[in-house]
TrEMBL record, chains A, B:
Family according to the record: Belongs to the carbohydrate kinase PfkB family.
Gene Ontology molecular-function annotations: ATP binding; phosphofructokinase activity
A Gene Ontology BP annotation from the UniProt entry: carbohydrate catabolic process
Entry keyword set: ATP-binding, Kinase, Nucleotide-binding, Transferase
Residue ranges of every copy of the Carbohydrate kinase PfkB domain listed in the record: 17-286
UniProt protein name: 1-phosphofructokinase family hexose kinase
PANTHER family linked to this entry: 1-PHOSPHOFRUCTOKINASE (PTHR46566:SF5), 1-PHOSPHOFRUCTOKINASE-RELATED (PTHR46566)
Organism: Streptomyces nodosus
SUPFAM superfamilies: Ribokinase-like
Pfam families the record matches: PfkB
The keyword Transport belongs to this UniProt entry's keyword annotation: no
Gene Ontology annotations for the cellular component aspect, listed alphabetically: cytosol
Cross-referenced CDD domains: FruK_PfkB_like (cd01164)
Keyword Glycoprotein: no
Length: 309, 309
């Protein structure tokens, strides 16, 4: 079983309007709603690939109840979310039907009490022991200590379970120092962590900070992975247009899927790039196009270079 | 008991952001949520004035459940909403913290089935018999026939219960023809109904179309009321700044409150103007400032003119 952790789950709402006019009144023509937060997105992709997956984190209030009802209809994801007193946040993505651009509104999330955080740590420790891999994903809700991910990384490592961290800012900085097996920053997160905008140098710097393997997601350029054995670049066969929402989460799912299937690094990266490309190509935000995925798998370019450093 | 009808109830969500940038990503700093739809707003104001009030209409899905839970915490409003299979809509108001302007996103509402509409008609007929007055408010959700308000007006009139209609477009046009005791269009709704932008002429025209009394809400200019006995203008004592959300619903509550308290027209109009002004002055959208209301009551100007027509 793969365990995904989403401390700040969200009910993701997408609205389509004809044209977004600030300070105007809009009739929403289409409404879509789904369980969100990076770890739940990762869990959904892993389940679609046929993996056993358990999603933990927090859910509360009326929105938390809606989220769990919808999660229950997501085939293959076991709901191990912990109930909290506060209400799970909503995110609203407003898609302009004329330009295709998206305006994003993110609620902050519920305040987690110290007792709720302690209950989570205990439940997490139990779940980790029966996990093949763990993904720690997304922002921290108010009330959770900034060193939370560092603590969750240490627990996984103590249990001998591979752990991937995908977050940003200070939680990423502290989490990296706890020596996770993998971190998957995007270009902005990597620059914020290291102060460098040069991808290979920054990725190596992130590794020196403690992560065993750093997999940087560089948008249209694909992935750059660095570890003690070498470094790899993996990219899609051609430039593509589409909605990048969820592409990073699909890459995380690909990395974990390749890990538990025992694939070598180049094949893991190919899986991650094919999944993330198939997510950009899918019409619905955050879904992946299975045919495109299968077709792309054999066409991802992975180049390997020996470590000079 | 006063009965308010809200066929297209809504969970009204208000977001505050620092500055709204189209196609940007925003952290919402404040989230407020309340049961909405014009009839529920009217009910809340009536209850705050001490009236017994029952709210009917439709509620369904996860948002309907949230709405009913919040309505249960609204002191004095009896929930007589009918459950439906579809999900109650949300409305999202995004307040720009820099300019104070609001961008509004309105979901369309659930499709009401013919069976749900029939069940409503039966329940409404029963409730009307024990009502002192009825308010029919707001838009129609998909599936409800466009002549719905005409039918609800006729049922109230057959039971001898005074009925006020506050809607727009074709539902207003058809509803007026069914001869309601009162209609309360705003300037735009009145112009759309009559083709005239001249308030007194348009108000008289609306009356000829079937309404016994037409009370036009003219924004900062207050109310213009016309019936067989005469016509009145009622306005606030001074120009005011604030949030006009819900001011029209407060005016409706004032008119109904004055009616069931047996007040003559000038006093009813004064109550409506004082309530709607106290709503504009309140910090939270759609709430009214009770002290401002009591203070304003004696200071609203009402001028009466004999009918020349």
């Amino acid at each position: 079983m793969i365990l995904t952790v989403t401390l700040n789950t969200a009910l993701d709402i997408t609205y389509r309007v004809r044209t977004l006019r600030p300070h105007g009144s809009h009739r929403v023509s289409e409404v879509a709603e789904r369980p969100g937060g990076k770890g739940l997105n990762v869990a959904r992709v892993l389940a679609a690939l046929g993996h056993e997956v358990t999603a933990t984190g927090f859910a509360g209030g009326g929105t938390g109840r809606l989220l769990r009802e919808q999660l229950a209809r997501t085939h293959g994801v076991v709901d191990a979310l912990l109930p909290v007193g506060g209400a799970t946040r909503r995110t609203v993505a407003v898609v302009d039907g004329t330009t295709g651009d998206t305006t994003q509104l993110n609620e902050p999330g519920p305040v987690i009490t110290p007792a709720e955080w302690s209950a989570f740590l205990e439940a997490y420790e139990n779940k980790v022991r029966s996990s093949a891999a763990v993904a720690l994903c997304g922002s921290l809700p108010p009330g959770v200590p900034v060193g939370a991910y560092a603590q969750l990384v240490r627990t996984a490592r103590a249990a001998g379970v591979p752990v991937l961290l995908d977050t940003s800012g200070e939680p990423l900085r502290r989490g990296v120092a706890a020596r996770p097996d993998m971190v998957k920053p995007n270009a902005d997160e990597l620059a914020e962590l290291t102060g460098s905008h040069e991808p290979l140098g920054a990725t190596r710097d992130a590794r020196r900070r403690g992560a065993h393997t750093v997999i940087a997601s560089l948008g249209a350029q694909g992935l750059l992975a660095v570890n003690a054995e070498g470094h790899w670049r993996a990219g899609p066969p051609h430039r593509l247009r589409g909605n990048p929402t969820g592409a990073g989460d699909s890459a995380v799912a690909g990395l974990l899927s390749g890990l538990v299937d025992g694939l070598p690094w180049p094949a893991r990266l190919a899986r991650a790039v094919a999944l993330s490309t198939a997510t950009v190509l899918a019409p619905a935000a955050g879904e992946f196009d299975r045919r495109a995925y299968e077709e792309l798998l054999g066409r991802v370019t992975v180049t390997e270079e020996a470590n000079a450093a």
